[in-house]
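2024-03-11 09:14:02 DEBUG pipeline.ingest accepted 1 chain
2024-03-11 09:14:02 DEBUG pipeline.ingest length=136
2024-03-11 09:14:03 DEBUG pipeline.predict start
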Amino acid sequence: MNKTIFIKIAATVAVLFSLLTIVEGSQVLLGLTQHDYIVFTPLIVYNVAMAIVGLFIGVLIWINHKKALMLTSIVTVLHLTVLIIVAVIFISDGPVSMHSVQAMTIRSAAWLAITLVTWKTNKSSEINNEPITTNK
C-alpha cells in the first residue's frame, strides 16, 4: 500500500480525534453536559489544549512536514505521562474517575499509533532516499 495513504489516515485520525475531544471537553468545561462520574477539571483543560495542538499536528502530518514526527512524539510522551499521573491519582482514591483513566488510555494509544505511522513512513522514505509525495 502507498505510504501516502498511511500518512493521510494518520492525519485524519489526529484531526478527527482532536475535534471530538475539543467538542466534548468544551461542553464539559462550559457546563453544557453533566456526567455521573467525577470530572477532574485540570485533565479536561489539558485535553482540550492538547486537542487544539493535535489539529495543528494533523495538518502537518497531512502535508508531511518534517516536524510532524517530532511533534507527534512529544504529544505521545505527554499523554503517557498524564496517563500515569491520572492512574496514580485514581489508585490513591483521588478525584479522578475510571472513565478518565480509560479515556487517557485510548488517547495515549491513538497518539502512539499516529506517531508510529508517522515514524514508519518517514523512516522508510529516508532509507530509500525518496521523498514522500502527497500529490497522488
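2024-03-11 09:14:41 DEBUG pipeline.report Helices lie at 3-29, 41-62, 68-91, 98-127.
2024-03-11 09:14:41 DEBUG pipeline.predict end
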